[in-house]
Design goal:
By secondary structure, the protein is of the alpha/beta class. 31% of the residues lie in helices and 22% in strands. A seven-stranded mixed β-sheet has the order 6-5-4-3-2-11-12. A four-stranded antiparallel β-sheet has the order 7-8-10-9. A two-stranded antiparallel ribbon has the order 1-13. Helix 4 packs across helix 6. It is found in: Cytoplasm.
Amino acid sequence: MELIRKNMIALFDVDGTLTLPRKSIDPDFRSYVLNLKKVMHIGLVGGSDMCKIAEQMGGPQYLKEFDYVFSENGLVAMKDGEVFAKKNIAEQLGEDVLQTFINGCLEYMSTIALPVKRGTFIEYRTGLINVCPVGRNCSQEERDAFEQYDLTNHVREKFINHLKAKFPALPLEYLIGGQISFDVFPKGWNKTYCLQFLTQFDKIYFCGDKCNPGGNDYELFSHPKVIGTKTKGPNDTKEYIQKLYDQHAVGDTAV
């Protein structure tokens, strides 16, 4: 019996959904995810840039296995291994506004004390600015420690509230993602941005871990055109994939 691939797509967040935070996907689990292509289309939607997503998926060659890959919330869009759309935050905001905002971030970071501070506090990406109070050069142990510190002290939440008060006229969104940072981008440039490229599908599923308000999966998870599911991590996601597969594994028995 040959399975029929339906006109629907399952989208997956990467960090915390298909992988542990900033870790690479388990090769067996990657094969398990790709097996879903037998019954529907599949895609990735991450806040990281394409290089980081490729790293977490085991290498750039595996991105071609997905029908769609949306990095930086979909501001860089790939189909069948080829980038077909890209939006630039510098062009959208203008260099003067962008630098004023970045300077404001650095000024605030100079006033806060944390258990540790490392390097790369601001990361410019094509479609967004990633702000990291502890610094992206921190070790995995320091990353884990900051995550726990932030749960108690709300470092990122306070940082975002400060920026909203300092730059009230800027049309920006702020979303917390991963363990140590938050993303900043023009309003509407959250993960729902990718939906404009998926209008041909009858159903759109999405699975992510940061699905509460303020998390970077929330807008896509709660969108009326999306059937959203919250996951606790790769093991939980595996069970979700199996349910999707079983639900839609309809075969063609025609001779």
